[in-house]
């Protein structure tokens, strides 16, 4: 079974649901006519299917190899594929033309990222991290730093990393110990150890630009004393080419459960030369640019693994013959029916299909708001910024939780074959698992949502989201074809609103109530957002049907949407009931009672 890019789904959302051509007034959309976007995504699909997907199992089996000279060799075929990606301009798709990028909107770039990640998640992390580092330097770097580093990172000639984690510090970045000492010439000397640094060392690019969080001597304790540094593997020479080797090495690789093709490195900095990005002690603010971008990227990874696993499970379910349909043989000539006839197998596949289609729409809808942050219309830009703040934790945690569940169900559909390494289900499940952990574990995303994002600017973002949903519901109330979708969204939003008010009253009174409610609240938000997307998709499908389009793709959309309303959305009530019980029993037992 080989992965096939869901180009038709992408085009349906971009054209029929989001109508991206309506944003042609924004610079990044100027060259994004649907014809152009279709050509790019079709070509991109070909690249990921033919070049990246065949290397996925190779990367899993071979992994990366560290040598005592501190070099890392990536799996067979990765270097050639990376060169092809650079030559094809795929790394530069969404980057600023001022630095050599193609300037396409995020909404198109995210569709491409999904395909790359489905085809080969471990490979996709190399250019993915580079793009995050590019965004951080673009947001916080000096003009000279941008001129020196960004063109090479945009092309993919140089790659990037993000160095936060240390042995004693993961979620709590206030515990960072890596030191930075001013060298008197404008540069700093960075010393310390970072762990689990993705793409920290490899043989794909000519230089690696590490973004490192460190503490300047005498800086305040905690997160207020953290600064961000550019620490390149090779120091750029007078011509901006890789020169002298910097004093940093990869001290080893981590043995791990999945993404074997991506090097997860211990990085040792021994008075390495680095340059401050922005101001001292303000590092976390700039790093958040990279982290927010990366969080959306991780949500995309979760969805992408779910899609690839679903495709594999569907192919297996059509092929594997076991038992007979409860309503009589469907394959009377054969010894048994394909397992797709069994309602319980259907349940797993329909769950996946209904969540993936709406999840993809949510991911692209959110990416469009990423683009709209740059709208000349300030009201539109502010709303988009509010949404990005509010929804980033939902995209990250909800899509990865659901993606992993889909991968687990895909293994179940495969039966024992899925647990063996003869089928790809095992790799998808293993690769997907990290998405729930890195870039801020999902529980921490949920805390960010209830603790910071809801309350920001007096709750402006969530109120604006409720108003948008109310307006959509109002516009379609009474439309017979859409009524189940309208009712579903109205009900989901009412439950989300009730949960939000409950949090406002009970979370302030006892912060443990907010913590105890956070994951259920995030899932309730995710369900509401996906119901919202189903209304938008049903509306788009119906409009085409009403115009005489009899494509079965459109009627299947409506059936899948109704399945979501009947069999997935009811979980919203469970989340509301659970979160309203608060922290009492959750926190009651003393540690010794466990
Ligand atoms: C394969 C891989 C690649 C990685 N790549 C990178 C990278 O490129 N760069 C980088 O800097 N790091 C990277 N990491 C590190 C990763 O981001 C951290 O593992 C992650 O942020 C969690 O930190 P931790 O492992 O220290 O868990 P801990 O912080 O020890 O947390 C353990 C558990 O406790 C929970 N928890 C902790 N604090 C709280 C709290 N206040 N409230 C509620 N729950 C809490 C967490 O949700 C988690 O479930 C990578 C890790 C792996 C495994």
Chemical compounds bound to the protein: flavin-adenine dinucleotide
Give me the number of helical elements: 18
Strand content: 5-15%
What is the CA-CA span between the terminal residues?
45 Å
Helical coverage, percent range: 55-70%
- Calculate the mean pLDDT score and round it: 97
Derived structural class: alpha+beta
**Given the C-alpha coordinates, what overall shape results?**
globular
Largest pleated sheet: 5 strands, mixed, barrel
Question: What's the count of strands?
Answer: 11
Largest beta sheet: strand ordering: 4-5-11-7-6
Return residue spans where pLDDT drops below 50 for at least 5 consecutive residues. Answer: none
Radius of gyration: 24 Å
H/E series, N to C? HHHEEHHHEEEEEEEEEHHHHHHHHHHHH
What does this structure look like?
This protein is α+β, with helices and mostly antiparallel strands. The protein has a domain at 441-585. 57% of the residues lie in helices and 11% in strands. It contains 18 helices and 11 strands. It has helices at 7-17, 34-52, 56-62, 78-87, 106-140, 143-155, 283-319, 343-372, 378-414, 416-419, 425-433, 442-453, 456-476, 483-509, 511-546, 552-567, 571-579, 584-588, and strands at residues 65-66, 72-73, 158-163, 179-182, 188-198, 207-216, 227-232, 234-236, 242-245, 248-253, 264-277. The strands form 3 sheets. The chain has a 5-stranded mixed β-barrel with strand order 4-5-11-7-6. The chain has a two-stranded antiparallel ribbon with strand order 1-2. Helix 8 packs across helix 16, helix 9 crosses helix 11 (425-433) and helix 9 packs across helix 13. The longest helix has 37 residues, at 283-319. The radius of gyration is 24 Å and the shape is globular. The mean pLDDT is 97. It binds flavin-adenine dinucleotide.
């Amino acid at each position: 079974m080989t992965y096939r890019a869901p180009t038709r789904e992408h085009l349906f959302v971009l054209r029929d649901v989001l109508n991206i051509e309506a944003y042609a007034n924004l610079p990044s959309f100027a060259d994004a006519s649907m014809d152009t976007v279709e050509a790019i995504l079709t070509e991109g699909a070909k690249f990921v299917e033919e070049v990246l997907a065949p290397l996925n199992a190779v990367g899993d089996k071979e992994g990366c190899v560290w040598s005592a000279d501190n070099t890392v060799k990536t799996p067979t075929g990765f270097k050639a594929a990376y060169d092809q990606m650079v030559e094809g301009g795929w790394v530069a798709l969404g980057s600023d033309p001022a630095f050599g990028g193609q300037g396409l909107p995020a909404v198109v770039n995210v569709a491409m990222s999904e395909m790359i990640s489905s085809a080969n998640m471990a490979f996709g992390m190399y250019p993915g991290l580079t793009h995050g580092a590019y965004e951080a330097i673009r947001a916080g770097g000096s003009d000279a730093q941008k001129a020196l580093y960004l063109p090479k990172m945009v092309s993919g000639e140089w790659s990037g990393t993000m160095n936060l984690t240390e042995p004693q510090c993961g979620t709590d970045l206030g515990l960072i110990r890596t030191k930075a000492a001013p060298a008197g010439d404008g540069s700093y000397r960075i010393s310390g150890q970072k762990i689990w640094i993705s793409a920290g060392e490899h043989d794909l690019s000519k230089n690696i630009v590490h973004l490192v969080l460190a503490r300047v001597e005498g800086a305040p304790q905690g997160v207020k004393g953290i600064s961000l540094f550019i620490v390149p593997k090779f120091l750029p020479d007078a011509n901006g080419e890789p020169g002298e080797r910097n004093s940093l090495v990869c001290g080893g690789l981590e043995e791990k459960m999945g993404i074997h093709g991506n090097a997860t490195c211990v990085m040792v900095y021994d008075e390495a030369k680095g340059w401050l990005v922005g101001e001292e002690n303000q590092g976390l603010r700039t790093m958040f640019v990279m982290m927010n971008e990366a969080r959306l990227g991780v949500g995309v990874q979760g969805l992408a693994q779910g899609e690839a696993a679903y495709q594999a499970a569907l192919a297996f379910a059509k092929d594997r013959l076991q038992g007979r349909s409860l309503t009589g043989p469907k394959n009377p000539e054969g010894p048994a029916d394909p397992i797709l006839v069994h309602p319980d197998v259907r349940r797993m596949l329909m769950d996946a299909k209904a969540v993936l289609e709406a999840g993809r729409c949510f991911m692209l809808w959110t990416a469009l708001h990423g683009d709209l942050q740059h709208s000349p219309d300030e009201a539109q830009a502010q709303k988009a910024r509010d949404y990005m703040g509010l929804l980033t934790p939902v995209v990250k945690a909800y899509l990865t939780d659901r993606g992993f569940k889909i991968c687990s169900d895909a293994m179940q559909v495969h039966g024992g074959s899925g647990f063996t390494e003869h089928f790809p289900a095992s790799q998808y499940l293993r690769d997907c698992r990290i998405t729930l952990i890195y870039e801020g574990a999902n529980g921490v995303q949920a805390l960010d949502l209830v603790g910071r994002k809801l309350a920001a600017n007096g709750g402006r973002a969530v109120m604006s989201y409720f108003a948008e949903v109310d307006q959509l519901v109002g516009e379609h109330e009474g439309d017979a074809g859409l009524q189940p979708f309208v009712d579903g969204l109205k009900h989901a939003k009412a439950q989300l609103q009730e949960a939000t008010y409950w949090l406002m009253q009970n979370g302030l009174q006892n912060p443990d109530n907010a913590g105890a409610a956070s994951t259920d609240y995030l899932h309730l938000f995710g369900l509401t957002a996906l119901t919202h997307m189903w209304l938008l998709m049903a509306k788009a499908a119906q409009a085409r049907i009403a115009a005489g389009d009899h494509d079965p793709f459109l009627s299947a959309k409506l059936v899948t949407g109704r399945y979501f309303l009947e069999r997935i959305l009811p979980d919203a009530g469970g989340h509301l009931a659970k979160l309203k019980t608060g922290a009492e029993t959750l926190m009651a037992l003393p540690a010794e009672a466990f």
